């Protein structure tokens, strides 16, 4: 009904940059907040950054001043620009969105399948 598809992951050297994208598609009436989470091997999934449909942002302390979240509401897409990447940023990055599907009166949370980001020399 509603799908989130991430792209842009890969292998990058420490200090490098990557830009992740997540496009929402399907029977969508409205998208509220969107965000990025990550999960490293052996660790719990953690919040990276979120953005409201009005553009207000929130970041984990570990990524502040290095990562930037943005969205294009016309394209139902959220982005994560990651700069000054560190080996500890290595994880699977997941997109998340609060969505009101067409024909529904409630909002639901949806997850993408994730994209691998590996920071290594």
Mean of pLDDT: 97
Shape: elongated
Mind describing the biggest β-sheet?
7 strands, mixed
Q: Classify the secondary structure makeup into a structural class.
A: mainly beta
Mind telling me the C-alpha Rg? 14 Å
Alpha carbon gap, first and last residue: 40 Å
Number of strands: 11
Q: Helical percent range?
A: under 10%
Tell me the β content: over 45%
H/E element order: EEEEEEEEEEE
What is the count of helical runs? 0
> Are there runs of 5+ residues with pLDDT below 50, and where?
none
What does this structure look like?
The radius of gyration is 14 Å and the shape is elongated. It has strands spanning 2-7, 10-12, 18-26, 28-39, 46-51, 57-59, 67-72, 77-82, 91-101, 108-111, 115-119. The chain is mainly β and 121 residues long. The protein has no helices and 11 strands. The mean pLDDT is 97. Helix content is 0%, strand content 59%. Strands 2, 4, 5, 6, 9, 10 and 11 form a 7-stranded mixed β-sheet that branches. The chain has a 4-stranded antiparallel β-sheet with strand order 1-3-8-7, with no helix packed on it.
